[in-house]
Specification:
alpha+beta, Alpha-Beta Plaits, 4-stranded antiparallel β-sheet, single chain, 97 residues
Length: 97
């Protein structure tokens, strides 16, 4: 079975405190759902139409596990801390090969 990945690109952060509150809950919820952090922030070199911005990559054992982690009560509680206007980000769940 192919693994799956959450890929998040943070276009902007307008409320760092909300992001910190989100991260405090999101990390344990993601780990409890079987997620493994592969990249979080750090150096980025963008090419083509890409943007050099905070990028997070999390690995899961399957696409279904990745979707279930996102939809879990624990992660939804983390999203509630983030709110709707604290960050602008693009979160995708992609299946590996």
């Amino acid at each position: 079975m192919a693994k799956a990945y959450w890929v998040s690109a943070y276009h902007s952060v307008s409320n760092p405190d909300a992001l910190a509150a989100y991260a405090e809950l999101a990390g344990p919820a993601i780990t409890a759902a079987g997620g493994t952090m592969l990249a979080r922030g750090g150096r980025v070199q963008a090419y083509e139409a890409g943007r050099a911005e905070r990028t997070v990559i999390i690995e899961f054992e399957s696409f279904e596990a990745a979707v279930a982690a996102h939809d879990s009560d624990g992660y939804q509680a983390a999203l509630a801390k983030l709110g709707t206007d604290s960050v602008v980000r693009d979160l995708r769940i992609v299946e590996g090969v």
